Amino acid sequence: LDEATAAAEAMALANRTHKARGNRFLVDPDTHPQTISILRTRAEPLGIIIDVQPVGDAMTDDCFGGLLSYPSSSGMVRDLTDEIAVIHDAGGLAVVCADLLALTLLVPPGEMGADIVVGSAQRFGVPFSFGGPHAAYFACSQALQRSIPGRIVGVSRDSNGKPAYRLALQTREQHIRREKATSNICTAQALLAIMASFYAVWHGPDGLKNIAAHSNQQARRFGAAMIASGRSLRHNSFFDTVVIETGDDRDNLLSTANSAGFNLRPLDGAVAASFDETIDDVKLAAITAALGGVLEADVDDNVPANLARNSPFLTHQVFHDYRSETEMLRYMRRLADRDLALDRCMIPLGSCTMKLNATSEMIPISWPEFADIHPFAPSDQLQGYQILQDQLCKWLGEATGYAGISLQPNAGSQGEYAGLLIIRAWQRARGEGHRNICLIPASAHGTNPASAQMAGMKVVVTGCDDHGNVDLVELREKCEQFTDQLAAMMITYPSTHGVFESEIKNLCDIVHDHGGRVYIDGANMNALVGTAEPGHFGGDVSHLNLHKTFCIPH
Ligand SMILES: Cc1ncc(COP(=O)(O)O)c(C=O)c1O
Q1: Mind listing the pLDDT tens digit for each residue in 247-273?
Q2: Which residue, of 295, 336, 388, 432, has the fewest CB within 10 Å?
C-alpha cells in the first residue's frame, strides 16, 4: 500500500516469527516520521511497544526486531551490517526501509543480512500526487516466505505445458484464516505497481543506474557547493538528500529557497534538499545560487567503496527487451490484448464488478496540477488541494450521511481498521473500554475479521439464513449473550451476495441497544450513492473503497 503500512506489516511478521523473548520493537530515530507514527498506531492493539532508539545497547533480548532506514530519513547512507548483526544476536529480525532507486547503486540490505526489506515504489515513474496512492514493496528472506502477508504469484505450467501464472502461496489469506488472519492487506494498488514496474521495464538496470547516478551527482555537486560557501553538512555520505546545518538560521534558509521557487525540508537545526531525475543543471544552479553557493562541474564520489553495489538486478529478459517506443508500445498492446478488462466486458470480480469507473476519470490524475504536489509542501501552496478536499469531504458527507470524513486510509481494509480503532476509542472514552467483541456475519469479506483482530477485538461470527441474509434471531441471541462486552458489529451493505437486506435498520437498532456501534463496510457504496445513506439507516462508521465506488482502478 505505502511504505509505512509495509513497515507495519514487517513489524507484525517479525512479531509472529521471532525467537526473542519480548514485545519491544526498536525503531531507529532517523526513520520517516509518518512511518514511526503508523508503527505506533499498529503496535498498540497488538501489545507491541515501539521504542525509538538507535540500535546498539537498546537492543536487548526483550526486543523481537529492529527497523533501520537505508538511506535514513535524513538521507545518510551507512553500512547496516553491524546493526543488523546486533539485532540478530538478540534473537530479533531486522527490517530495513530502503529506497529502490538508491539500491541500484548501493549494496542491497539483503546482502547485509536484513530479513525484511520494505519501501515505496513511488519514485519509479509515479507522480507525488500529494502523497498517493503509490505502491509499496515488501521483500523477505526465503525462511520467512510462508509468513508473508498477502499472496505470492508464481510461474507454473498449465495443462498444455505452457508457462502460466498462478497464486502460489496464500497461507495468511483472510478468506482462509478469517479472524486468525494476521494481515488485512487486500487491495495492493495494482495500477501504481504496474506503472512502477513499467518504469523499470522501460529503463532496465542500466537506465535506472544512470538515473540514480544523475540524482546522486547533482546532490553531491550541491553539497560540495554548500561546503565551499562555508556551510557544513550533517552527513558526508548520502544518496540524493543533502542536509545543511543551519542552527537558528533555518527559517531564513527555508524562505530564501522558497522565494527562488524551491521547497526545502525543515529539520531540527537543519534543512534538507532532495534531488531526483528531474533536476537539471539550470535548476541546480538556481537553488545553489539562492543559498549562496557556486557549482563545480563534478565532485568526488561520496558513497563508501564497500557500499557500491556489485550484484546484478532486474536480470529477467523483460527488463532488457524494450528500448524503443514502438517495441514498448507493441509489448503493452500484446499484454492489453490478453486482459479481461472493462473495455471488453464486465469484470467478474465480486463486488468490485459494481464499479462506476469511467476511463475519462483517469486523465486528470496525470495533470501536473494534481500530480506534482509533494505531500509535505507548505500549506500555503496547497490551497487548491485544500479546496478539493473540503469539497470532497462535504460531498462524501452528504452521500454517506456521516458527520465527518477522513481521506486518509489508503484502502478499504485500512479504512476498516481505522474505523474499528475509532469505535474502540469511543468505547474507551465513555468508560466501556472492556468492550472488545466484534460481531461479524459468516458471509463477510475476509478483511473484516482480519481488521477486527488487528484492532484488538475478539471476533464472534454470527450466522446467515439460507438466502445469505444475517439471521436476526441468532444476532439477537449473540447480542444478549455479549451485552456487556459488545464493541461493534461489521456489516456490508448491500451485502456481499448483492442483496439489500430489508432488516438493516432493525439490525443496527439491536446492536445499538446492546451498547455496540455499527460499522457499515462501504465496499458496495456505489449501489447506495444518491439512494440511501449508511449514516441515516444506522451506521456509525464506514469506509468507501475508491477503486469500487469512485474513480481509481482496482
Ligand atoms: C466487502 C469488502 N470489504 C472490504 C474490502 C477491502 O477493500 P480494499 O481491497 O480496498 O482493501 C473489499 C475488497 O475487495 C470488499 O469487497
Answers
A1: 999 999 999 999 999 999 999 999 999
A2: 336
